[in-house]
Design a protein that fits this description.
about 120 residues; four-stranded antiparallel beta sheet; disordered C terminus
Length: about 120
Amino acid sequence: MFRSIILLQRVALDDAVVPWSTYLKVFVLLGVLVGLGFYALRYAARRSGGTGLRARGRVELIERLGLEPRRALYVIRAGSQYMAIGSSENGLQFLMELKGEELLSAGTGAGADAQ
């Protein structure tokens, strides 16, 4: 009788044992999925550029120029005025007011030919 109980326990344990290679495959697959998700989000954030910074209403981000990892130059429109704003580790700083005609001519390259 004891032999039959021991045999039943062995069969139950042998069926429940999962090889380590299965666990390894699951963890590798999980790591690959997390890595792909991370890089997909990072790519999407870079592709969106300044679109996430655009605001509805009277203030609009016209262009963003990344200078260094934590420094950028922004051209914004507030009402009918255009402004250049710099950002750095110290915060935002107003640089200068721009004229709309200068922006249009600089964007098409006509401003450089006119001089």
